[in-house]
Amino acid sequence: MKCFHYFKDKTRSKSQRSAPILKDDSNFGISDVSSKDRVTQSTGSANSPRGIMELYEEKAGKLRVFTYTELRQATSDFTRLRKIGEGGFGCVYKGSIKPVDGKGDPVVVAIKKLNRDGFQGHKQWVAEVQFLGVVDHPNLVKLIGYCATDGERGIQRLLVYEFMANKSLEDHLFTNSPQPLLPWQKRLEIMLGAAQGLAYLHEELEAQVIFRDFKTSNILLDENFKPKLSDFGLAREGPTEGNTHVSTAVMGTHGYAAPDYIETGHLTAKSDVWSFGIVLYEILTGRRSLERKRPKEDQKLLDWVRRYPIDGKKFGMIIDSRLGNQYSLTAARKIAKLADSCLLKSAKDRPKMSQVVESLKQILEVSTEGSPSSKSFEMADDEPGELTEKTKTVDGSESSKRRMAQLAKLSEHVGGVSKKGFMIMHRAKVS
């Protein structure tokens, strides 16, 4: 059963005629719930008479329609040498396509090919086309076009995206390299960009979009390490006017899904906020939300970090050791507090993403003003015990120098003992 129909208006351009109208189908529809199941209030959708379907029909013409042959050529027949990623959807290949007008240099792209045996399947392909056909933001990956072919070779479903040269945040954050590939400041800038992308989806569109699978592998990085959210296969339209949540099957990634969503199946924008809090702790610690190879008590990131209170002396122990001293402890504490607010048990108590954006901007200002090497001074300010010990050490050193200077002056008047011998004796006493 197909889930889309092609435009048949011959007055439209080829791309517009071919753009699929994505329907809510019982088997392959973009939403896995009916409108009667939607029961919560959405800020983003409250004043909007139009949903994602209507917005897509209006904007679908901007997507480029490719033939399967074009994409085979673009990837050298999907050779393994061009494969740059793989997931539940299928494989992703690096390719190059001709510009729309056929002029100029080829454009480098990422081409995702649906694995027909994959569990995500056609429904997620439809979701990607629909949502990415509507959204437009610098922190969301751009969908250039798609291919939908039903022929002798079977059903072929492909998506063509802008190419992201630096892969994902996951690739850089969870590396085995002893040196951090992502410095402190860059980590904060990436999280700010990701937050701005979520805020756009939640609060700036006519119809609210809930991402539902926010995690490090879905934050792609361009050549300048600018972040862009990708993989909208699990995204869902937010609740309609007068409702407060969407009732839906629980989907996402273990370790990132909000507990209230898991327990009730009630999906809201605050489900994304919880996931964002998890990733904030991941960029602080350099550890995944769940690591089965660690001791049982340390496998869950949240259980581990909560043993080190934010205002306590040992808080610094959770910071990614690869950062060395190249971070601001003051800013790190603020990040942890922001993460905790995103991880509040009650969804309504969590901040909106627009509030998270403003908090991150302020933290970035604090982090930028203080040099990375000032970490030790920040620790001294926050931890009186360490300050006392350090002060004693410094004072003792200065006192020794003064005593040595006095002894040197006295030695000039000592009789019967050589100046050198006198200094040797008193050095031993001082030490």
From TrEMBL:
Substrates-to-products reaction catalysed: L-seryl-[protein] + ATP = O-phospho-L-seryl-[protein] + ADP + H(+); L-threonyl-[protein] + ATP = O-phospho-L-threonyl-[protein] + ADP + H(+)
Binding site for ATP: 113
Enzyme class: transferase
Full protein name: non-specific serine/threonine protein kinase
Chain ranges of the Protein kinase domain: 78-364
Keyword Transferase on entry: yes
UniProt xrefs under InterPro entries: Kinase-like_dom_sf, Plant_Ser_Thr_Prot_Kinase, Prot_kinase_dom, Protein_kinase_ATP_BS
Keywords from the UniProt entry: ATP-binding, Kinase, Nucleotide-binding, Transferase
MF annotations from Gene Ontology: ATP binding; protein serine/threonine kinase activity
